[in-house]
Design brief:
The chain has 358 residues and is an alpha+beta fold. It has 2 domains: 238 residues, P-loop containing nucleotide triphosphate hydrolases (Rossmann fold), CATH 3.40.50.300; 107 residues, Nucleic acid-binding proteins (OB fold (Dihydrolipoamide Acetyltransferase, E2P)). The chain is 23% helix and 32% strand. The protein has 8 helices and 20 strands. A 6-stranded mixed β-sheet has the order 6-7-8-3-9-10, with helices on both faces. Strands 2-1-4-5 form a 4-stranded antiparallel β-sheet, covered by helices on one side. Strand 7, helix 5 and strand 8 form a beta-alpha-beta unit. Helix 2 runs parallel beside helix 4 and helix 3 crosses helix 4. The longest helix is centred in the middle third of the chain and has 17 residues. It is globular, with a radius of gyration of 25 Å. The N terminus is likely disordered. Pfam families: ABC_tran (PF00005), TOBE_2 (PF08402). Its EC number is 7.6.2.9. GO terms for molecular function: ABC-type ferric iron transporter activity; ABC-type quaternary ammonium compound transporting activity; ATP binding; ATP hydrolysis activity.
Length: 358
């Protein structure tokens, strides 16, 4: 069997629904065997982008190619979805309720009817289905109906169906969003391991920051139909290109900052002097993550008192604010570190934070 291309290029893609423009000049590459997460809020164009790549929605402009094969461009070229060698895992599985689990997976292997196949072909097809069920951790469930499976099991079947034809690219459209928190975490880990071991080129669409940062090799932040930033999870989280990206990617506090009244590499803020990345000039704002903040009991008045304490198990999320609530900051404290409502605290920012000029 010929080896199929497995890297993706999206260049200048624009797409609309009627007169409503959804995607604006979107460009990115996905390397062979890489998992790219497209992270963005509801309505930003994430699912439309997947539909354009899969061939389910026509782009008005731009180019989509798998390896050296152009599957869509702005000049009318549009390869049909079934000829793109792309596997799609939709949000809620979308399994055929009238087919067994094995039947759903076999559907992904093609439309040949079993009665038209010889004994050898039938045996090969059954072996492939059995292997895929083993791969996704559902051995022995081939005869069950989708309604007899849990939500997590149904998503595993949907993944097996998408992998059945050995696609060049796997598209995952928020596949874990309907699952409870515990199952969601375990299934994420299993799917990531499976895709990594099979060296599958993949795109995960999600609005969940933890999911994107925890699963992806790179993250593309999509805001208002445009790629705002693309990079490794660490880079996007620690070095956002804008306040908008920084606020969306993770929990943060934004404070006014003035470098003119501080030593080089520092800025003055309402909570004191804070180290910053780069060399700031002019007034601006800093973005601080809770894990960069350390609270301690105040030895002298600071004007910051504890307003909220939320125990999460491994850590406690503590919020402190001024009396008028105009200035506030959050910190992740050790799980056994206790603060009480109304307690006055001092604040220390332990590492350099990004600065954004006004």
């Amino acid at each position: 069997m010929n080896e199929r291309p497995s890297d993706l290029q999206v260049k200048g893609v624009t797409a609309s629904y009627g007169r409503s423009r959804v995607l604006h000049d979107v460009s990115f590459d996905v390397n062979e065997g890489e998992l790219l997460a497209v992270l963005g809020p509801s309505g930003c164009g994430k699912t439309t982008l997947l539909r354009v790549i899969a061939g389910l929605h026509r782009a008005e402009a731009g180019l989509v190619s798998l390896g050296s094969r152009v599957v869509a461009d702005g000049n009318g070229r549009h390869i049909a979805p079934e000829r793109r060698h792309v596997g799609l895992v939709p949000q809620e599985g979308a399994l055929f309720p009238h087919l067994s689990v094995a039947g759903n997976i076999a559907y992904g292997l093609g439309n040949s009817r079993m009665r038209r196949m010889d004994l050898k072909a039938r045996a090969s097809r059954r072996e492939q289905v059995t292997a895929l069920l083993d791969l996704v951790g559902l051995p022995g469930t081939g005869k069950a109906r989708p309604a007899q499976l849990s939500g997590g099991q149904q998503q595993r079947v949907a993944l097996a169906r998408a992998l059945a034809p050995s696609p060049a690219l796997v598209l995952l459209d928020e596949p874990f969003s309907a699952l409870d928190a515990g199952l969601r975490a375990s299934l994420r880990a299993d799917v990531r391991t499976l895709l990594y071991e099979r060296k599958m080129t993949s795109i995960l669409v999600t609005h969940d920051q933890d999911e994107a940062l925890g699963m992806a090799d790179r993250v593309a932040v999509l805001l208002d139909g445009r790629i705002a930033q693309i990079g490794t999870p660490e880079d996007v989280y620690h070095n956002p290109v804008s306040l908008e990206v920084g606020r969306f990617v993770g929990d943060s506090v934004v404070l006014d900052a003035d470098p003119s009244a501080a030593p080089s590499g520092w800025v003055r803020t309402p909570i004191g002097f804070i180290p910053v990345l780069g060399t700031p000039s002019g007034r601006g704002k800093v973005l601080i993550r809770p894990e960069q903040v350390v609270f301690s009991s105040a030895a002298e008045p600071t004007g910051l008192t504890v307003t909220n304490v939320r125990f999460t198990g491994p850590s406690t999320l503590v919020t402190a604010a001024t009396e008028d609530r105009k200035i506030w900051v959050r910190a992740h404290c050790a799980g056994d570190r206790q603060f009480t409502h109304g307690e006055e605290v001092s604040v220390d920012v332990t590492s350099s934070v990004p600065f954004f000029a006004d």
